[in-house]
Design goal:
The complex is a heterohexamer. Chain A has one domain: Helix Hairpins (Orthogonal Bundle), CATH 1.10.287. Helix content of chain A is about 80%, strand content about 0%. Chain A is built from 3 helices and no strands. Chain A has helices at about 5-25, 25-50, 55-85. In chain A, α2 (about 25-50) runs antiparallel to α3 (about 55-85). The radius of gyration of chain A is 17 Å and the shape is elongated. Chain C is mainly alpha-helical. Helices cover about 50% and strands about 10% of the residues of chain C. In chain C, strands 1-2-3 form a 3-stranded antiparallel sheet. Chain E has a single domain, classed as NADH:ubiquinone oxidoreductase Nqo5 subunit (Beta Polymerase, domain 2). In chain E, β6, α4 and β7 form a beta-alpha-beta unit. The chains are: A mainly alpha, B alpha+beta, C mainly alpha, D mainly alpha, E alpha/beta, F mainly alpha. At the C-E interface, α2, α9, β6, β7 and β8 of C face α1, β3 and α4 of E. Chain E: One of its GO terms (molecular function) is oxidoreductase activity, acting on NAD(P)H. Chain E: Belongs to the complex I 30 kDa subunit family. Chain E: Keywords: Transport. Chain E: InterPro entries: NADH_quin_OxRdtase_su_C/D-like, NADH_UbQ_OxRdtase_30kDa_su, NADH_UbQ_OxRdtase_CS.
């Protein structure tokens, strides 16, 4: 197994995630794309963890998973709030930050 | 939140029933294998004693569901006493009860002045086709075998002859 | 708007507020409104009642029962039938307590004819009346469990109700639809052995009531599901004409068996009218449970001293009821069941208004369902206890 | 089932096949037994009736009749449903069950996998079924189903937390997350210096056990926590639109999961495949006699039946909660109590 | 115990007093009344005083709403559906005769309210004008009248002014006709002839007046 | 088992899973139904968990399943179903600059792949794959509660804030 194969997979996922963030209009879809990006980062972390024979990568992967959970929680709460006030979750329509 | 006693009592009831069913047997009956006898008065099916029927139409007229069909004709019967005039009697041609319509109210049995109709507790006569629930006079006559004696009455009842 | 109406509105509002305070997790996610059709084929509406509920999340914004799936037009049908035929018909209104349906109709006809059944007939009528109440309400107790997810009570209810039905069948010949009452008395006397059997069965039913109390009423989950749910205040209950246990659970001490003089045997024995001050679902269920117990007591006492004598008064063979109007209502298992019979001197009634208990009891549903949660719809409907035939007639 | 036992002699593919077969047996056998013994017979007896009696002696073949009936039923998909998701949803639920059984140890060498983080894995995998239920509810294009699915999701997430927290007490006491080691720790343990009984954690972690069983009841959506399928409210919740084979899949998953959770509970709290007084002083996994690989599974099945009995007994006796009461119960009672339990366990662990 | 309650059940004097109280409350809107001894009390009020009567009764303590319905006093033109369809239609008496407490119109609205502590009820009737069958709604008086009025509207075609929604309760919304009106035929009695019409066929050639000695 | 065997098996496994993940990820950003996208994301995340297992990070893999598949995705589905999850395709999920997004992300991919390939060439992940063993959980916990305790505290605080924030945001009043 090569280091590069994991890193390349991570890169592909990352770019797909970036595309999703840029191209998607629906707030939930954007959040999902962010999850893709976070996962690609995790993949890199773990690959390097193995590469260097240290567990630090594992630790930080765990931290990232926890952060992702928190992010999704808050993000979805915001989406619901926006939806409640405006009956839409299309981000383009949200030009102002009023509740 | 929940206090324990009420919840445990509920478990006790089901466990008790489980115990009782195991020891004393269930309250249900394995139907096709064993059957419970219906009470004597049970209104299962109407039986016809054809000899008594004079096709007077009273039952058909008083049926709330109009489910009794009677056809008959008059006919001369030999005189009862020798030398008498030949009697004119009503001869029954058709006596059908449509059990798909019947609501088992028993009015026809009650109004019959000649004791031609009886209740039988027999209940197993369901049919896959609804048209087969129309019982003709032959079939109704066959039910006569299953008609039981009227039950004894509870103490204190005024004895009276069967009407 | 009168002042009472605004009072009701205020109560309704505070009720909604209290319910909303109980919101799950205290976090309400507002969702798109949704219309939920409960019924006509739905396991919770024992029969074919349909409830159209407008929901916000799981909270009911507006609910309306839609009945008529079982309308048989009995009021019209009575106009083309003779009095004995109508008796067979009205059996089918509240099919769980059939015998009790016949009694007020027969009493109304007897009132118009100004005859009275002999005492023995009155006694037997009362006994069978109470037996049908037991058969009806014990099924309610079992069904209550099913509506709330407990599957065992219903089997116990069916088990013990079967004994009562056996008694009714043994006496009348009809398990569900006795058609045993006649104008002027009864069709027949009791068969031998009825009294002893009934005593045994009444003991079993008291035992059944204890079981229900332990299995269901004492259960904390059941209590938390029913207490404070679907509160109907006294004055609202009266306005909507609720009757029976539903009215008594709202604290109105009114029982037609006690509070009117009818040629029946209730006032000859010692019994108690149970009321409950709360007016919630639990109160309604609890009052019914006590009523089953009380009914077994009534039956036991009546069995002790059945007068002897005939069971039929002298009536002509062809019954023509004199001209007039009469209203008779009795305390049926479901509540006040009354017949307003208008006679023109014919073989059959000219017009019969059937005042069935469930129609009034269920007409409060739009009021009481406002602001409750979907699971509470079921609890409240179950505790109001209706029979479809009794609503639609 | 004893795949690991034969591992030395068998090629890779044969081992894998054996494990798969063992897994199928370990899922279907308990499910079938639970359905027949408890759902058919015990429930009937508790309701004063006999239950199925026609198929086979005492209706023992009834289950096969039912399976046959379901299999030959038409597989109906609602017209407006999301077909693909509708079809895979029951399989997701079933997969969760199969993944769960993979960590359960049945004997010293009778296991499918021996994860280091077995308990953790079990908790992770059990949450996958939520996904299946949620998409089953959504894809049915039915309001009752959707409500049922949402309720299930809310409930299963709410009760996963108490379950995790209840298990943590055991983990602290055993000092390991490996299920096999937890079994060993219980049976080789001692109480107040007396090791005759071992140290089944049901005694020391009684609070944890109760919370775990309540959470299991909720995870399995059995009464009093069966709002997602709530017969009288939501018809059949997320299962409303399913028929035939796919309903059977849900059905198997439900009862197999009950069995698997009972197995896990008996591993965590009842000493797993060991029993008191029959633990002959073994103190490491290697020292356990080989015959335990045969007796162990039997002991496990016995314990599973015992715990399933309790689960089903409660199911047949209680009415159900309301959704908000259930959530309140989870967050305001179970979570705090289990946190206190963890605290006390940790303190005692450090103290002794 | 029940004996006290029985003693408290009011007699006819109470009923008469109720009628007097009602008369003083609504004045000459009370057209007619009937106190049947030992039975019940009927009053008939003017159509325009229908709601006022309800309010007056409430203020008299009649808080319990029992039912509301209507009566069509026209004799049915179809009889009991037991006529021979081949024979010419029989003559029927079609005079409209109202019942207790009189009346002037074909249809009357009938309601019953009860005093919850005195345990005495009052049957209130009011004529429904033939030309425009509308009376006032009782919903402001008794909220429970809602469904009863809907039912009455559906069955008799009587309108209730002030009722928020007089949808059909039982029948489909596009159903035509008002089933409980006497001129609405009961189809079940029309599509099938009465089996009682068919009589025993006479003896061919024999005269009918000759009676046999049987039975 | 031979190390070479393992290497082949792992590489095949990696290939299959990676393919699934890439397809899944592409579907996530292109499919026009929110729930379908979420389910494709589940495929990607489960694939990621499998990759973690290959990378001998058992604990992280299980956490991935527990948190992502069991909780985050359920939350996603829950949220979408509460708002607008319709059955069938929706057309307006992409915004108007999706055409620009494609070259942007392709460019990024190109740059990154060039860097990765250039930087690592055929460097092995680990010299002797047979030595690869699962990371003991104890080491991770020593790591968390040792040198990285401060981030752990910070994380706990973030989680607490997130919980409170989510509740405050989603509350009705």
């Amino acid at each position: 197994m090569l280091t590069a194969q994991f890193l390349l997979l991570g890169a592909v996922l990352f770019c797909i995630g970036v595309y999703g963030v840029l191209a998607r209009k629906n707030a939930v879809m954007v959040l999902m794309s962010i999850e893709l990006i976070l996962n690609s980062v995790n993949l890199n972390l773990l690959a390097f963890s193995v590469r260097h024979g240290s567990v630090d990568g594992n630790t930080f992967a765990l931290y990232i998973i926890a952060i992702a959970a928190a992010e999704v929680g808050v993000g979805l709460a915001m989406v619901l709030l926006i939806y409640r006030n405006r009956r839409t979750i299309a981000l383009d329509d949200l030009s102002e930050m009023k509740g | 939140m929940p206090k324990v006693p009420g919840l445990l009592k509920g478990l006790g009831v089901t466990l008790n029933t489980l115990k009782r069913t195991t020891i004393d047997g269930a309250n249900t009956v394995q139907y096709p294998h064993e059957k419970e006898a219906p009470p004597v008065r049970a209104r299962g099916v109407i039986a016809l004693r054809e000899d008594n029927c004079t096709s007077c139409m009273l039952c058909a007229r008083s049926c709330p569901d109009w489910c009794i069909y009677i056809e008959g004709h008059k006919e001369l019967a030999p005189p009862r006493r020798a030398g008498g005039k030949p009697r004119q009697v009503n001869k029954l041609d058709r006596f059908d009860i449509d059990y798909a319509l019947c609501m088992y109210c028993g009015i026809c049995v009650e109004v019959c002045p000649f004791d031609a109709l009886f209740w039988s507790p027999e209940y197993e006569y369901s049919e896959p086709r609804i048209a087969d629930l129309l019982h003709d006079k032959v079939k109704l006559g066959e039910w006569m075998e299953t008609v039981p004696e009227a039950p004894a009455l509870e103490a204190g009842a005024e004895k009276k002859g069967k009407k | 708007m009168t002042s009472t109406e605004s009072l009701i509105d205020r109560r309704q509002l505070s009720y909604i507020a209290a319910q909303a305070a109980d919101a799950r997790l205290n976090v309400e996610l507002e969702t798109e409104g949704m219309t939920l059709n409960i019924g006509p084929q739905h396991p919770a509406t024992h029969g074919t009642l349909r409830i159209i509920a407008r929901l916000d999340g799981e909270q009911v914004v507006w609910a309306e029962p839609s009945c008529g799936y079982m309308h048989r037009g009995y009021e019209k049908l009575t106009e083309v039938r003779t009095y004995p035929q109508v008796t067979a018909l009205v059996n089918r209104i509240d099919w769980l307590g059939s015998f009790a349906n016949e009694v007020p109709f027969i009493l109304a006809a007897e009132k118009l004819m100004e005859i009275e059944a002999p005492p023995r007939a009155q006694w037997i009528r009362t006994i069978l009346f109470e037996l049908s109440r037991i058969a009806n309400v014990s099924l309610f107790l079992g069904d209550l469990g099913v509506q709330m997810g407990a599957i065992t009570p219903v089997f116990m209810a069916f088990r013990d109700r079967e004994y009562v039905l056996n008694l009714i069948e043994g006496a009348t010949g009809g398990r569900f639809h006795p058609n045993f009452d006649r104008i002027g008395g009864l069709k027949d006397d009791l068969p031998a052995g009825f009294i002893d059997e009934t005593r045994v069965v009444m003991k079993k039913l008291r035992n059944f009531c204890d079981e229900m109390e332990n299995l269901l009423f004492g259960n904390e989950i059941f209590q938390s599901r029913t207490r404070g749910i679907g509160v109907i205040p006294k004055d609202v209950a009266m306005q909507y004409g609720l009757s029976g246990a539903n009215l008594r659970a709202s604290g109105v001490d009114w029982d037609l068996r006690r509070d009117q003089t009818l040629p029946m045997a209730w006032n000859k024995v010692d019994w108690k009218v149970w009321t409950h001050p709360d007016g919630d679902s639990y109160a309604r269920c609890w009052v019914r449970l006590q009523e089953v117990r009380e009914s077994t007591r009534i039956v036991d006492q009546l069995l002790d001293d059945i007068p002897s004598g005939p069971v039929m008064a002298k009536v002509p063979r062809i019954i023509k009821v004199p001209e007039g109007e009469a209203w008779v209502s009795t305390e049926n298992p479901l509540g006040e069941m009354g017949y307003y019979v208008v006679s023109k001197g014919d073989l059959g009634p000219f017009r019969t208004k059937i005042r069935s208990a469930s129609f009034n009891n269920i007409s409060i549903v739009p009021w009481v369902l406002k602001g409750v949660y979907v699971p509470d719809i079921i609890t409240i409907l179950a505790s109001l206890y209706f029979i479809l035939g009794d609503i639609d007639r | 089932m004893n795949a690991a036992l034969l591992a030395a002699d068998l090629p890779y593919w044969a081992q894998a096949l054996l494990r798969v077969l063992g897994g199928v047996v370990a899922v279907l056998l308990p499910a079938g037994t639970i359905v027949y013994v408890f759902l058919f017979k015990m429930m009937s007896f508790m309701q004063s009736r006999l239950g199925p009696m026609e198929a086979g002696p005492y209706g023992s073949m009834q289950l096969f009749a039912e399976v046959g009936k379901w299999l030959q039923k038409e597989d109906i998909t609602p017209e407006r449903a999301d077909r693909f998701i509708f079809k895979i949803a029951p399989l997701v639920v079933l997969v969760s069950t199969f993944l769960l059984v993979a960590v359960v140890p049945f004997g010293p060498d009778a296991w499918f996998t021996n994860f280091e983080a077995g308990v953790f894995y079990m908790l992770a995998v059990s949450s996958v079924s939520v996904l299946g239920i949620l998409i089953a509810g959504w894809a049915s294009a039915n309001k009752y189903s959707l409500l049922g699915g949402l309720r299930a999701a809310g409930q299963l997430i709410a009760y996963e937390l108490p379950m995790v927290l209840a298990v943590i007490g055991v983990i602290i006491q055993a000092g390991t997350m490996n299920l096999q080691d937890i079994v060993l720790a219980q049976n080789a343990g001692s109480m107040f210096g007396w090791d005759g009984l071992g140290n089944p954690y049901i005694l020391t972690q009684f609070v944890g056990f109760i919370i775990f069983m309540i959470a299991v009841q909720a995870e399995l959506t059995q009464t009093p926590f069966d709002m997602p399928i709530a017969e009288s409210e939501l018809v059949s919740g997320y299962m409303t639109e399913y028929s035939g084979f796919r309903f059977l899949t849900f059905f198997i998953a439900e009862f197999a999961t009950a069995g698997v959770f009972s197995l896990i509970a008996s591993v965590l709290f009842l000493g797993g495949w060991g029993i008191p007084f029959a633990w002959f002083g073994w103190d490491t996994m290697d020292s356990v006699d080989n015959w335990m690989n045969v007796v162990g599974p039997l002991i496990m099945v016995t314990k599973m039946m015992l715990l399933s009995f309790i689960i089903m007994w409660v199911r047949f006796s209680y009415p159900r909660f309301r959704e908000d009461q259930l959530q309140r119960f989870a967050w305001k009672v179970l979570v705090p109590v289990s946190l206190v339990n963890i605290m006390i366990t940790a303190i005692l662990k450090v103290a002794f | 115990m029940s004996t006290d309650a029985v003693a408290a059940i009011p007699g006819d004097t109470l009923r008469e007093r109720i009628v007097d109280d009602l008369r003083s409350a609504i004045g000459d809107a009370l057209l007619d009344s009937l106190v049947k001894p030992g039975d019940d009390v009927w009053v008939r009020v003017r159509t325009d005083a229908w709601r006022a009567t309800g309010l007056a009764l409430r203020s008299l303590g009649f808080d319990y709403f029992c039912f509301l319905s209507a009566i069509d006093w026209m004799p049915s033109p179809f009889g009991k559906g037991e006529d021979d369809p081949t024979a010419p239609a029989p003559e029927r008496d079609d005079t409209i005769a109202q019942g207790y407490a009189g009346g002037e119109t074909r249809m009357q609205v009938l309601a019953r309210v009860v005093h919850p502590t005195l345990h005495v009820g009052v049957n209130v009737k009011c004529d429904v004008p033939d030309s425009e069958p509308v009376v006032e709604s009782w919903i402001p008086v008794f909220a429970g009248a809602n469904w009863h009025e809907r039912e009455t509207h559906e069955m008799f075609g009587i309108g209730f002014a002030g009722h928020p929604d007089l949808r059909n309760m039982y029948l489909p919304s596009d159903f035509e006709g008002h089933p409980l009106r006497k001129d609405f035929p009961l189809l079940a009695r029309i599509v099938k002839p009465w089996p009682g019409i068919v009589d025993v066929e006479p003896l061919p050639g024999g005269s009918d007046d000759e009676e046999g000695d049987a039975e | 088992m031979l190390a070479a065997d393992l290497l082949v098996a792992q590489n095949i496994g990696f290939g299959i899973i990676a393919l699934l993940m890439v397809v899944g990820a592409l579907r996530v950003v292109t499919v026009n139904n929110v729930v379908h996208a979420a389910l494709w994301l589940v495929v990607v995340l489960s694939g990621a968990a499998a990759q973690y297992l290959l990378l001998s990070a058992e604990f992280v893999a299980i956490t991935q399943v527990l948190v992502y598949v069991g909780a985050v995705m359920v939350l996603f589905l829950f949220g979408t179903m509460l708002t607008r999850a319709r059955i069938g395709a929706e057309n307006d999920l992409n915004n108007k600059n999706w055409k620009i997004a494609i070259p942007v992300s392709l460019l990024m991919l190109g740059v990154m792949s060039w860097v990765i390939v250039d930087g690592f060439r055929d460097e092995k992940l680990i010299e002797n794959p047979g030595e690869m063993s699962q990371v003991p959980i104890q080491l991770i916990s020593d790591d968390i509660f040792g040198p990285y305790l401060l981030p752990f505290w910070a994380l706990s605080f973030v989680l607490l804030v997130a919980v409170i924030g989510a509740i405050v945001l989603a509350r009705k009043d």
